């Protein structure tokens, strides 16, 4: 009689043996993403804003995502790109800040140090051909100096009075440059809020990966403050005059 062979579920598909000659593969692109972040300097500090949408491909899936993060006492970080890589960066920064606190040496990392830390992490991952699919905006006040810097997934960095990521580089940055640059020390907080709402409104109109629900953050000498999500007022009256809109 032939022997009876019992095959349990976990033995139906045996794992294939791997060889050292096979290439190492990494994530080829982001999955759940957030779009533009805008930031600029004003009289009392730095203002930053982002919408609350997390897009799964072209699907508007998550409508209450926060892409602004407080790091330390005087640093605000905004993110565009993949949410899972953003979570990795957030946990990394939290661990670094915890280690700094545990040292209890009377020193703390300011915005400039955090900006350099983020840039080094991004460049290191790029150099290992496994980049974090994000763009970061780092803002803060370091010993009375306003710090506003940009870091992309290649580790490219620069500092400027006005910054926008994603589609904001095309749709919001021209407005920011026109209204802000050269007037950073004259713009009040009320005027800064109006500029934020204006830019985010344009992004909602023109960027299919944006929504009108946004959060706004600011960094001043008193510290970091992030608002609760709110909706930017919009006006679609002109839509009736667009050929093909409606019935």
Write a brief structural summary.
By secondary structure, the chain is an alpha+beta fold. The chain has five helices and 14 strands.
Task: Report on the architecture of this protein.
Helix content is 27%, strand content 29%. With 247 residues, it is an alpha+beta fold. The strands form two sheets. Strands 1, 4, 5, 6, 7, 8, 9 and 10 form an eight-stranded antiparallel sheet that branches. The radius of gyration is 23 Å and the shape is globular. Residues 8-17 have low confidence and may be disordered.
- By secondary-structure content and strand pairing, the structural class works out as alpha+beta
Total strands: 14
Low-confidence stretches: 8-17
**Residues in helix, %:** 25-40%
Instruction: Please report which band the strand proportion falls in: under 5%, 5-15%, 15-25%, 25-35%, 35-45% or over 45%.
Output: 25-35%
- Any idea what the shape is? globular
- C-alpha-based Rg, rounded: 23 Å
Distance between the termini: 77 Å
Mean pLDDT: 89
Number of helices: 5
Q: How are helices and strands ordered from N to C?
A: EEEEEEEHHEEEEHHHEEE
